[in-house]
Each structure stands twice: as structure tokens, then as C-alpha cells.
Design brief:
By secondary structure, the protein is an alpha+beta fold. 34% of the residues lie in helices and 30% in strands. It has helices spanning 38-51, 68-86, 137-149, 162-181; strands at residues 7-13, 17-24, 31-34, 54-61, 95-102, 105-112, 118-122, 129-130, 133-134, 152-158. The longest helix has 20 residues, at 162-181.
Length: 197
């Protein structure tokens, strides 16, 4: 990986999931996703579209048990892909915050691409499931992404419809990560007084 292309390819295989992910941070929003969970595929496609990330995700998971391992492990691999693609994070904006509405629902995300994983979440999902996707797994996805991408991430949702709440959260994650990972043309160094993130 060179800093110029900011791309990554990461694979992970366990007894629960087999996952291949490719990521281009400076993409066009193109996605090819197959996790076996229709609504999760839709959310990852929305994440790519609204973050302008080119993303492929192929996951074969133990869906005969439930959706937990698939959602969690995809987030782990996606987080690792962000780390690989960002390299030493030279020149990035680093901080961002976004609020995204979807009808009655609003999601907020504040992120620091700090290298120090931390996660806070506020709010609840109004229905327990959206299709075959367990609503609270959206929070777990955000947490697993933060822990594996080295993000300080504060997120929250409010609304009346879990579909809208989850979708707004994925879009807010995308927009904030797009903002925070952009290269600031005024900066040639790593945005930290420590000199390293």
C-alpha cells in the first residue's frame, strides 16, 4: 500500500466467518457486497455511497446461528482495512462530526481518527429487527469498527423507526469518516503534536 492510493485488501477466516474486504478511501462510492443479510448489504452499500469509498465485501458467515458474527467480523475487517489504507495518516483532517436525518430519525457521529479506540453510544432502536438484521447490531458494528480502525467514536440515534435509525447511523458514519480521512492540502505532517497517530 502506498499513501498515494490509500487502498487496502484484508481477509479474515475463523470457524464462524470467512471474509474478504477491499477498500479505496478515495473512491466513487462503488460497492459490491454480499454478506447473506440483505439489510446489512444495503447498509454497507449506503456506507460506501455516502462516504465515497469503493468497497467490496464478501462474507460467508454462520447465519444458521444468527447475524452477530457476520456483522461483528465484517466491522473488524473493515476497521483493519481503514488502518491499512490510511498508513501513517499524514495530512488527514483527523476530526469530524456529522448529523444525518432520515425522515423522523436523526443519527449523530463525532469521530477522531486518533489511533486510540474508544466508543460511546446513546439512544435505542425502536424495533428489534429490520428484516433479518438485529437492530442493536448497528451499535455493535460501530463499536467493532471503532475498536479495529483506532477511532475515538461517539454516536447516537433517535427516532421511531429502526430502519431509519440504523440507516441514518451508517450514513453518518460514512460522512464523518469521509470528512476525517480527507487530505488537508495545508498539512504535510501527521495531525498530532506527538508526530504520530
Amino acid at each position: 500500500m502506498s499513501d498515494a492510493d490509500r487502498t487496502a485488501a484484508v481477509s479474515r477466516e475463523t470457524s464462524e466467518t470467512t471474509i474478504d474486504v477491499t477498500l479505496a478511501i478515495d473512491g466513487d462510492g462503488d460497492a459490491a457486497v454480499d454478506t447473506g443479510i440483505g439489510f446489512f448489504d444495503h447498509m454497507l452499500e449506503a456506507f460506501a455511497k455516502h462516504g465515497l469509498f469503493d468497497l467490496t465485501v464478501q462474507c460467508d458467515g454462520d447465519l444458521h446461528i444468527d447475524d452477530h458474527h457476520t456483522v461483528e467480523d465484517v466491522a473488524i475487517v473493515l476497521g483493519e482495512a481503514f488502518v491499512e489504507a490510511l498508513g501513517d495518516k499524514r495530512g488527514i483532517v483527523r476530526y469530524a462530526d456529522r448529523k444525518v436525518p432520515l425522515d423522523e430519525a436523526v443519527a449523530s457521529v463525532v469521530v477522531d481518527v486518533s489511533g486510540r479506540p474508544y466508543f460511546e453510544f446513546s439512544g435505542d432502536f425502536s424495533q428489534p429487527y429490520v428484516g433479518e438484521f438485529t437492530s442493536h447490531m448497528a451499535e455493535h458494528f460501530a463499536m467493532s469498527l471503532a475498536m479495529n480502525a483506532g477511532l475515538t467514536l461517539h454516536a447516537g440515534v433517535e427516532g421511531d423507526n429502526a430502519h431509519h435509525e440504523v440507516e441514518a447511523l451508517f450514513k453518518a458514519l460514512a460522512r464523518s469518516l469521509d470528512d476525517a480521512t480527507r487530505v488537508d492540502p495545508r498539512r504535510s505532517d501527521t495531525p498530532s503534536t506527538k508526530g504520530k497517530l
